Amino acid sequence: MRSVVRSLRQLRRFNQYHAERHSSAVRLIRQQNGVMCGLTSRSLSTLRRSGEISRFSSPGVELMRSMFSTVAADSIKDIGRGGPMVEYERRIASGELVDGDSFQLDTIQELQRLYEELIQNEEDCQLDRYKSSEKSGRSRWLWSRLITQPSTYAPVKGLYLYGGVGTGKTMLMDLFYEQLPSNWRKKRIHFHDFMLNVHSRLQMHKGVSDPLDVVAAEISDEAIILCLDEFMVTDVADAMILNRLFRQLFSKGVILVSTSNRAPDKLYEGGLQRDLFLPFIDTLKERCIAHPIGSAVDYRQLGSAEQGFYFVGKHYSTLLKQKLQSLIGDEEPSPQTVEVIMGRKLQVPLGANGCAYFPFEDLCDRPLGAADYFGLFKKFHTLALDGVPKFGSSNRTAAYRFVTLVDVMYENKARLLCTAEAGPIELFDNIVTVAEAHKVSPRSSRSQKSDDTDLCVDNELGFAKDRTISRLTEINSREYLEDFEGRLGQQQQQPPQPLQAVDNADVVLA
């Protein structure tokens, strides 16, 4: 018993010492952010030209250096960076980001506010993974009786960012995530990948009385701050478990930061049994602040689309294979097998040297999903896709799979070569939302009337197509391909090979 009392006293002294260090760090951050908030009331570009930003930021840097000499620098060095607002301004000053987007500035201020709240509530939110691990394992039974374990909602609400495609939602969320201290329990993952992980865990805990509770406990043990990119619900299986899953996660203290193209009330609109999904929307709005990004700028389409591998016309199939072979090199492509989750396997018609070839039908007309595509891009960095059709009511399911394929490809920063019936925008001409369908005017010509028979009215697909078009545009831009070559060169520890332009009027450089 004496040893237990002695341990408690040591713990109390440790907590007091940590609280003193933590309060010093918080005061420093408030001073820095007070300066930054004053800056945002005027034009940032004007301040930069006049040199005021450097004048204001220099004292903070000096203060930080002096602080490092008096407190344990190793425990607060991540906090000392000042949060997403400071990093956002640094990237603008260095030319990495475009200045003058008031919508992005408004969003980064919301992320900065959340960052500061997390700093202030670090203890209550149990963010420090090392301190949390002290109470895990065999000692958890003892700790649960000596110290009250919080099992309520976190004192900090999360953030749900939504808006149009290419407006910088993912970039801003990632910027926020990168500024969080490395010792915190945090995770950043694409929504598709997250749900695949959830289903895989549920399968693993089959037979348990409440497997969803076990899965929620596992996720919350790994991450208190959960950053989900591209929140989009199209699968009825996902829709049915989301409410219970996130109720469990939120009750275990998880804080959600997410991006989406859809407002919370528009999620899973028109989906099967949506009335069973609606409680999740209420839960989401209760535990997250919904913040719209109203910018109309699609930054993905600002790149230089002077080079690319997007060929319009079925007669380019031979050229596609030639281009693929030139990227592969001397190796001979052959059929391969890719293992995905839960024992599933994906047959690759031709693959070699990180490059894979598929007819469109083999990837999007078969019962495949995000799990198969994630498995594919874990092994291959380049995909040659032959014969992408125009989409409509006759191939709606294939359109959904193509949207998912492009999402996974973009998440994995892969390279695409493809032949298609039309350019990215024209591929989705017949995919419309309900609102767009009401605006379609009667057509007179016989050919146009035949087009209308393939019109697909689908809200989810109608919204998702804009993201897919935007991403196809960026994937075929010079900047994206050069960045791909640079990363590939670093991985192979050799200088990147220069891209070869394709000089042909029928090639769409999206």
Automatic annotation (TrEMBL):
Region (Disordered): 486-505
Record key words, sorted: ATP-binding, Nucleotide-binding
Domain of life: Eukaryota
Source organism: Urochloa decumbens
UniProt-listed PANTHER family: AFG1-LIKE ATPASE FAMILY PROTEIN, ATPASE N2B
Xref: Gene3D superfamilies: P-loop containing nucleotide triphosphate hydrolases
Family: Belongs to the AFG1 ATPase family.
Record carries keyword Nucleotide-binding: yes
Molecular-function annotations in GO: ATP binding
InterPro entries attached to this UniProt entry: ATPase_AFG1-like, P-loop_NTPase
Coiled coil (UniProt feature): none
Name of the molecule in the record: AFG1-like ATPase
Entry keyword Transmembrane helix: no
